[in-house]
Specification:
The complex is a heterodimer. By secondary structure, chain A is α+β, with helices and mostly antiparallel strands. Chain A is built from 20 helices and 23 strands. In chain A, the strands form 7 sheets. In chain A, strands 3, 4, 5, 6, 10, 18 and 19 form a 7-stranded mixed β-sheet that branches. In chain A, α3 crosses α4 and α12 packs across α14. By secondary structure, chain B is of the alpha+beta class. Chain B is 64% helix and 16% strand. In chain B, a hairpin with a 5-residue loop joins β2 and β3. Chain B is rod-shaped and about 120 Å long. Chain B starts with a helix and ends with a strand. The chains are: A alpha+beta, B alpha+beta. Chains A and B meet through β4, β8, α9 and α20 of A and α1, α2, β1, β2 and β3 of B.
Chain lengths: 570, 118
């Protein structure tokens, strides 16, 4: 090899040596540093969005679902002409341009412009290709039935945390723990997938309510509010045997998809959070207690001819003079005098014991947040008039759900059931996590419950206070209530403000639904039999049709010959 | 003679080794590029799946809204002029053999007797 060739070989060798040294530096000596740098550029950590579980009614109809949306943010440092950008954005965002300008001029690198924008709107903004405007995918809770069952379903905040109703009560079940994932990206930012797509989803919840029954209840509740110009109203429908809430609604109410500016008045689930003096619907406590204790039978008579009775210095009247009434007539005609006489016969302690036995003064344990226990004083703190007042449903504070539960105990043969709205919880794969089973506690003997059930039937028959609650084709058992509201200013019972109610169950012989209708401060009429009774009747009629419950009298009427086969063609 | 033959064999072996090495390198590069291309395809399919899932969710929500009982009743009463069934005109009977309950409506005929229909 000549000298020139040796020089060329030497230069090439030096060049190769330099490459080898550099490679050794990258791959051996500073391997970890370069590896970390490369990973930092090629991989990106992302949080996997957590989808909340779906809430269904008892027939699998969706009440709360998830929608994909995008949240729009800005980086003010990258925006050159905030006014022009704000003009373009405000049209799509529907916000005032000045408010958008303020955000675009903010002294920080990240500012939300609008959370959870619909995908098509977000795409229109993206198409504007504005510098400094970015998008983050987010999930939004959507309630396809709007106002339906709002006080049961509840809603979430912008971070998808449950704030009300089942959304709040079962927040942990409905949501899942967030996880991060690492995505590999190329120099242009395109993602390279490993073929695994992880989805995080909370458990699905199946409620005991039925959308059809809930609609029937809410439709009629709106009717009450319009007809009687009431301050508020509540209706609860329950399966008396299991404690499953089939429908629960309050007025005023709110739209679940627009809950942001809703007042506390509308948010309140009055069925469990508001206590009131029940009035005559409470008479079942002393009535059934007297039967259970063997103090009376259905035909025991009470002299109510005076029309008034004095207890502890207070005179309590009947609506009109009734004469001598049998025990069942005392209940049928809702005689205050007769009921107080029964209460006096039982004595303070036994009346109190039965009030507690029926669950008054304690929470029912319903699986909804915010339940109150109601209120009753212990007998040692009763005044002279308390035994009379409590016997007719005064000096006690109860919630509609407590009253309904007590009537359900009469309906089902003496068992106090635990009301509940959650039927099942299932994993996204469909595995059962939780199933509600009826929790029952005997408070009355079956004999007493059945006897009292027959007595309550008479309330909706001729001569009773709630003929208006009777249902064509099925017997109804129940009781009206008309309670004066206590006026805090005058410290007396108001003569203008009342709570009208009706609570009962149908068909009385084999109860399928127990229901309470409570109307606060109706205008134009006050009696439970006038205000609440007809609504019970309408709802029961529609609900029994919806549930395909046969008429009690279908056999006796000899109406038809039915074939399940196709009729022969002539 | 023997030396020349062994030298020729050595050249053949060396060439074969180099060709094998180059082939191996190209195979590895080709396989790696195949994997990367597959990863791009998967990513694109995932994106499509995500888009379809988004659309599915919107359609699901729309379906749930459209199937609301309230909406059915409104349409039935306004467009169809239907009314909620009168319970006096609906009778529920036991279906003889199976013992299951089903609904049957009936209407009075001109002679006053009633004809039942499934």
């Amino acid at each position: 090899m000549n000298r020139r060739g040796m020089v060329v070989v030497a230069i090439i060798s030096m060049a190769f040596l330099a490459v080898v040294v550099r490679l050794a530096d990258i791959m051996v000596m500073n391997h970890d540093w370069f590896l970390a740098k490369a990973r930092g550029q090629q991989t990106k950590k992302e949080t996997i969005p957590v989808k909340r579980g779906v809430i269904y009614d008892r027939k699998g109809r969706e009440l709360a679902v998830n929608l994909e949306t995008e949240s729009v943010f800005c980086d003010p440092s990258e925006i050159a002409a905030p006014e022009a950008v704000a003009q373009s954005l405000s049209r799509e965002l529907g916000n005032d341009a000045r408010a958008v300008v303020t955000k675009l001029n903010a002294d920080k690198r990240f500012h939300w412009l609008e959370r959870k924008v619909e995908l098509d709107r977000a795409q229109r903004i993206r198409d504007m290709k504005l510098k400094g405007i970015g998008f983050v995918p987010e999930l939004k809770r959507y309630y396809p039935k709007g106002t339906l069952a709002s006080h049961i379903v509840g809603f979430v905040n912008s971070d998808n945390t449950g704030l009300e109703g089942v959304e709040r009560q079962l927040d942990k079940q409905l949501s899942a723990q967030t996880e991060n994932t690492t995505k590999v990206k190329d120099a242009r930012g395109h993602t390279l997938s490993e073929g695994t797509m992880k989805e995080l989803k909370g458990n699905d919840v199946v409620l005991t309510i039925d959308e059809g029954l809930q609609h029937i209840v809410e439709k009629n509740l709106d009717g009450i509010m319009a007809k009687w110009r009431a301050a508020s109203a509540t209706i609860i429908m329950m399966d008396p045997h299991t404690g499953e809430i089939l429908a629960l609604a309050n007025r005023p109410t709110y739209n679940l998809n627009d809950s942001g500016a809703t007042s506390m008045q509308k948010l309140r689930n009055r069925a469990i959070t508001d206590s009131y003096e029940p009035g005559s619907t409470f008479k079942i406590v002393v009535g059934s207690a007297a039967l259970e204790e063997g103090m009376v039978n259905a035909k025991s008579s009470f002299d109510c001819s005076a029309g008034t009775i004095e207890v502890g210095g207070r005179r309590i009247k009947d609506d009109h003079r009734n004469g001598v009434l049998s025990f069942e007539e005392v209940i049928q005609k809702s005689s205050n005098v007769g009921t107080i006489k029964i209460g006096l016969g039982l004595g303070k302690q036994r009346v109190y014991d039965y009030v507690k036995k029926f669950g008054f003064g304690s929470k029912t344990g319903i699986d909804l947040a915010g339940e109150v226990s109601g209120w009753i004083r212990p007998p040692d703190r009763w005044s002279g008039m308390s035994i009379g007042a409590i016997s007719i449903g005064q000096e006690v504070a109860v919630t509609p759900i407590q009253v309904l539960r007590a009537y359900a105990a009469i309906a089902n043969g003496g068992l106090l059931v635990k009301p509940h709205v959650v039927g099942e919880i299932r994993t996204p794969q469909g595995h059962l996590v939780y199933k509600a089973y009826p929790e029952k506690e005997r408070v009355l003997s079956e004999k007493t419950a059945l006897l009292f059930r027959d007595i309550l039937k008479r309330v909706t028959e001729e001569g009773g206070t709630a003929k208006t609650a009777s249902v064509d084709g099925n017997e109804v058992a129940g009781k009206t209530g008309t309670a004066q509201l206590f006026d805090q200013q005058t410290k007396r019972y108001s003569k203008e403000r009342y709570v009208s109610s009706f609570v009962g169950f149908v068909p009385a012989g084999d109860p399928r639904i127990a229901m309470i209708v409570v109307v606060h401060e109706p205008k134009g009429a006050i009696y439970g039999g006038v205000v609440a009774g007809p609504v019970f009747r309408t709802i029961a009629n529609e609900a029994l049709s919806y549930m395909s419950v046969p008429r009690d009298d279908h056999r006796e009427r000899g109406l038809l010959l039915v074939s399940s086969q196709e009729p022969k063609k002539p | 003679m023997i030396q020349r033959r062994s030298s020729r064999l050595s050249v053949v072996w060396k060439s074969a080794a180099i060709i094998c090495a180059v082939f191996l390198v190209f195979t590895v590069v080709w396989m790696r590029s195949g994997v990367v291309s597959l990863e791009y395809q998967l990513s694109s399919l995932e994106q499509k799946k995500n888009e379809l899932m988004k659309e599915g969710k919107v359609l699901g929500a729309e379906r749930a809204s459209l199937l609301a009982v309230k909406r059915f009743e409104t349409i039935a009463s306004t467009d169809g002029h239907l009314v909620f069934p009168d319970r006096t005109k609906v009778v529920f009977v036991k279906n003889g053999r199976q013992g299951t309950t089903y609904a049957a409506s009936f209407v009075p005929d001109t002679k006053g007797s009633r004809i039942a229909r499934d």
